[in-house]
Write a structure and sequence with these properties.
The protein is of the alpha+beta class and 178 residues long. The chain folds into two domains: 2-42 and 152-175; 48-147, Umud Fragment, subunit A. It is built from four helices and seven strands, in the order ααβββββββαα. The two termini are 24 Å apart. Its EC number is 3.4.21.89.
Length: 178
């Protein structure tokens, strides 16, 4: 293994190696900057999510990639929202079933349901929680790309594949001589 690494770097100066490493980190940094820029543009902390379950079939299938934004208008019945429940990391993609607007405070009380689920989402909410609020919503679905998120699901199901792919990509960047 060491001989193979030595053969790969034969003729390289330390400067070339550092430039290739810097190039790798610039690519990673650019991806993060694009993500943050897109988040600011669409006003959503997570502008893209992957559907992880069958609860929204037939509207969305497992593995669909959803594009989100958070417009300033109120949430309405029928909107497909992505929301987070306090204390849980994975966001939920479900349709708004009922909305109650409190006039005095301007607060919205929202009840959601998965299209493929028999009942509303109160069983998914925290104990004694009957509604979610607008602050729990991270975005409304604006569009989707069918099955484009399957890569994410596969990477989460097989984490060793994720590290192998990242390692191969890193090696390609480092060994690229252009």
């Amino acid at each position: 293994m060491l001989q193979w690494i030595h053969d790969q770097f034969k003729g390289w100066s330390l400067r070339q190696l550092l430039l290739q490493t810097l190039n790798f980190f610039m690519i990673i940094g650019s991806v993060f900057m694009l993500w943050k820029g897109w988040s600011l543009f669409v006003n959503s902390e997570s502008p893209i999510v992957v559907v992880l379950s069958e609860s929204m079939e037939p509207a969305f299938q497992r593995g669909d990639l959803l594009f989100l934004s958070m417009p300033n208008e109120p949430i309405r019945v029928g909107d497909i929202t992505v929301f987070k429940i306090k204390g849980r990391e994975v966001p939920i993609v479900h349709r708004v079933l009922t909305v109650h607007d409190e006039i005095e405070t301007g607060k919205q009380y929202i009840l959601t349901k998965g299209d493929n689920n028999p009942g509303d989402d109160r069983v998914l909410y925290n104990h004694n929680q009957m509604w979610i609020h607008r602050e729990d919503v991270i975005g409304k679905v604006q569009g989707f790309l069918p099955y484009a998120g399957m890569v994410t699901i596969i990477m989460n199901d097989y984490p060793q594949l994720k590290f192998a792919l990242l390692g191969v990509l890193g090696l390609l960047v480092v060994f690229q001589r252009e």
